[in-house]
Design a protein that fits this description.
Shape: elongated
Structural class: mainly alpha
Number of helices: 5
Mean pLDDT: 82
Radius of gyration: 23 Å
Oligomer: single chain
Low-confidence stretches: none
Number of strands: 0
Protein backbone atom coordinates (compact mmCIF):
# COMPACT_ATOMS: atom_id res chain seq x y z
CA UNK A 1 0.00 0.00 0.00
CA UNK A 2 1.42 3.39 -0.97
CA UNK A 3 2.10 5.96 1.70
CA UNK A 4 -0.09 9.09 1.41
CA UNK A 5 2.98 11.35 1.68
CA UNK A 6 4.70 9.83 -1.35
CA UNK A 7 4.84 12.05 -4.40
CA UNK A 8 3.56 10.70 -7.70
CA UNK A 9 6.18 9.29 -10.06
CA UNK A 10 7.72 11.57 -12.66
CA UNK A 11 5.53 11.34 -15.77
CA UNK A 12 8.55 11.34 -18.10
CA UNK A 13 11.48 9.46 -16.55
CA UNK A 14 14.85 10.70 -17.77
CA UNK A 15 18.11 8.81 -18.16
CA UNK A 16 20.36 9.26 -15.11
CA UNK A 17 23.18 10.84 -17.12
CA UNK A 18 21.13 13.93 -17.99
CA UNK A 19 21.37 15.33 -14.46
CA UNK A 20 18.68 17.34 -12.70
CA UNK A 21 16.03 18.92 -14.88
CA UNK A 22 14.97 22.46 -14.11
CA UNK A 23 11.51 23.71 -14.90
CA UNK A 24 11.07 27.13 -16.49
CA UNK A 25 10.52 29.68 -13.73
CA UNK A 26 7.25 30.99 -15.15
CA UNK A 27 5.69 27.50 -14.92
CA UNK A 28 6.44 27.26 -11.19
CA UNK A 29 4.18 30.25 -10.49
CA UNK A 30 1.15 28.75 -12.26
CA UNK A 31 -1.92 27.98 -10.10
CA UNK A 32 -2.83 24.41 -9.26
CA UNK A 33 -5.35 23.41 -11.92
CA UNK A 34 -5.50 19.93 -13.53
CA UNK A 35 -5.90 21.09 -17.15
CA UNK A 36 -3.28 23.81 -16.73
CA UNK A 37 -0.86 21.29 -15.26
CA UNK A 38 -1.43 19.02 -18.27
CA UNK A 39 -0.76 21.92 -20.63
CA UNK A 40 2.38 22.92 -18.72
CA UNK A 41 3.69 19.37 -19.10
CA UNK A 42 2.86 19.45 -22.82
CA UNK A 43 4.76 22.75 -23.09
CA UNK A 44 7.78 21.29 -21.31
CA UNK A 45 7.69 18.26 -23.61
CA UNK A 46 7.63 20.50 -26.68
CA UNK A 47 4.08 19.54 -27.68
CA UNK A 48 3.12 23.06 -28.74
CA UNK A 49 0.30 21.82 -30.98
CA UNK A 50 -1.48 20.48 -27.87
CA UNK A 51 -0.93 23.80 -26.09
CA UNK A 52 -2.38 25.70 -29.08
CA UNK A 53 -5.35 23.33 -29.21
CA UNK A 54 -6.29 23.26 -25.52
CA UNK A 55 -5.20 26.64 -24.10
CA UNK A 56 -8.05 28.68 -25.63
CA UNK A 57 -10.54 26.66 -23.57
CA UNK A 58 -8.78 27.86 -20.41
CA UNK A 59 -9.14 31.49 -21.48
CA UNK A 60 -12.83 31.18 -20.53
CA UNK A 61 -12.02 29.98 -17.00
CA UNK A 62 -13.62 31.64 -13.97
CA UNK A 63 -10.21 31.82 -12.29
CA UNK A 64 -8.24 34.91 -13.44
CA UNK A 65 -4.92 33.24 -12.53
CA UNK A 66 -5.73 30.31 -14.85
CA UNK A 67 -6.66 32.74 -17.64
CA UNK A 68 -3.37 34.63 -17.18
CA UNK A 69 -1.41 31.36 -17.21
CA UNK A 70 -3.13 30.18 -20.40
CA UNK A 71 -2.37 33.54 -22.07
CA UNK A 72 1.25 33.23 -20.94
CA UNK A 73 1.58 29.75 -22.47
CA UNK A 74 0.11 30.97 -25.76
CA UNK A 75 2.39 34.00 -25.75
CA UNK A 76 5.46 31.81 -25.17
CA UNK A 77 4.78 29.69 -28.27
CA UNK A 78 3.96 32.59 -30.61
CA UNK A 79 6.69 33.56 -33.08
CA UNK A 80 8.79 36.56 -32.11
CA UNK A 81 7.47 39.64 -33.97
CA UNK A 82 11.05 40.72 -34.73
CA UNK A 83 11.64 37.44 -36.58
CA UNK A 84 8.64 38.16 -38.81
CA UNK A 85 10.12 41.51 -39.80
CA UNK A 86 13.58 40.03 -40.36
CA UNK A 87 12.08 37.32 -42.59
CA UNK A 88 10.24 39.98 -44.59
CA UNK A 89 13.49 41.97 -44.92
CA UNK A 90 15.41 38.87 -46.08
CA UNK A 91 12.78 38.01 -48.70
CA UNK A 92 12.73 41.64 -49.90
CA UNK A 93 16.52 41.68 -50.25
CA UNK A 94 16.43 38.39 -52.15
CA UNK A 95 13.82 39.76 -54.59
CA UNK A 96 15.86 42.94 -55.02
CA UNK A 97 19.05 41.00 -55.80
CA UNK A 98 17.25 38.73 -58.28
CA UNK A 99 15.62 41.73 -59.96
CA UNK A 100 18.95 43.58 -60.16
CA UNK A 101 20.79 40.52 -61.49
CA UNK A 102 18.28 39.57 -64.20
CA UNK A 103 16.73 42.97 -64.88
CA UNK A 104 19.80 45.12 -65.39
CA UNK A 105 22.26 42.73 -67.05
CA UNK A 106 21.47 42.26 -70.71
CA UNK A 107 22.88 39.13 -72.29
Amino acid sequence: MADATESPPDPAPRPPDEGPVERPQFLIKFPDHPELTRLARAFEAGNYAEVRRAAPALLDSDNPAVRRAARELLKRIDPDPLMKYLLLLAISLFVLVVWYTYGTHAH
